Amino acid sequence: MNKICVFAGSNAGVSPEYGQAATELGQLMAAKGIELVYGGSRIGLMGLVADAVLANGGRVTGVMPRGLFIGEMAHKGLTEFIEVGNMHERKALMSELSDGYIALPGGLGTFEELFEVASWAQLGIHKKPVGILNVKGFYQPIADMLNHAVSAGFMRDTNLGLMLFEANAAVLLDQMAAYTAPEQANKWAELPK
């Protein structure tokens, strides 16, 4: 695994553990020679993970839509900074550049990016690992919701293996390196398996 796309909050959150986890993930990625691909911001958890990769000799590619965010948000010290036309181009390019994905805690944007790549995995568009760094149980409600979707008949249980929930960044990176996409059952319950 050479490049990982990290989705993360543009805010740091109220708990110092969130920032510590972002920094630790960046340090581990740099130590393993894994390049960071992310949204290009210098603030929040996004900035912390980028700064940690850079401070430890790693490479960082930021992808940001032209004119969408205020100029002070863009990280000026990245290995590569790519401007694109819109959010759709941003997500497509980040995905194209990456061998896997990790979601740190975040808000609506982070959730949207996470669910998009998980949905693409469900449809077989990619077979890349989707890791969730479950800092302080932040993503437990989503894990519970996914299990509820299975029990309610809206999702196959094989879909649960498409996302790797882990609280420890080093363990998550090891799981992603060893990842093989689970065999998926037919997504549509009304059609023959």
Automatic annotation (TrEMBL):
It is an enzyme of class 3 (hydrolase). Keywords: Cytokinin biosynthesis, Hydrolase. The keyword Hydrolase applies. It holds the Pfam family Lysine_decarbox. Its EC number is 3.2.2.n1. The keyword Cell membrane does not apply. InterPro entries: LOG, LOG_fam. Belongs to the LOG family. This is Cytokinin riboside 5'-monophosphate phosphoribohydrolase. It comes from Paenibacillus glycanilyticus.
